[in-house]
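Let us practice reading a record.
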Amino acid sequence: MTLTISPTSPSAHCVTAPLNRSKRGVAMPDKLWPQHSVLTISLLNMTPEQKAFVKHNINAWAPHTNLYFKFTNSPNGDIRITTDADNGSGWSNVGTGAKKVPLSKPTMGIDFTRSPDSVAATIQHEFGHALGLKHEHQHPDRTLDLNRQNIHDEYASRGEPSSKAHNDILRPFSRRQVKTSNYDDKSIMHYEVHASRLNSGKPIPRNFKLSEGDKSFVQTLYPEDKTLLGKLLSTGIRVMINAQTT
């Protein structure tokens, strides 16, 4: 089956693994959502096919958190996702930073004009940001031998400042800033690192799905409550969400 994801015009609302495995990742502790939160996710300016595709890819994270995702067409969600073909493949506020964005504006944008595999990876990556995750290639323990001049030149060729190259790729996070586990170059949160960006070492291809490290790391950030009360609470919340969306 071939899935076609066509772009749409903006509407008036648009004015943004198992726990025993090695845990890997980078997250902003102060941007994590409260445990067991119900996150309302607005899907704006999308075709029905686009909405279904976004839901499917966001739900790749769902089994690995204690959060609950409630999708809505209302523009007032905690996370507000719109089509955006003008600002790169995708972007997102990080975690609870979305709460500081006025309700009249989106908190995430997705470009649907590329291949389905590329759009799927972008949605999963950007929703990782929405959960509080940061870029894995900026992990304090990354093993990348980056060619700084080539990266600056690459950004300059696109008319982008060297400060953006620094913030996007070159700058590793301070260990005081982030919560981490082992560096994971298979993470959905890792940029592609082609040969021209390296002085030495093997290029890192783009990752198109959550790694086992992504799954286990986010489980440590939003751990499942396995008590009887926790299970009853989870069941009750899911029943409530399903009742409100059917």
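A brief commentary: Confidence is low (pLDDT under 50) at residues 1-23.
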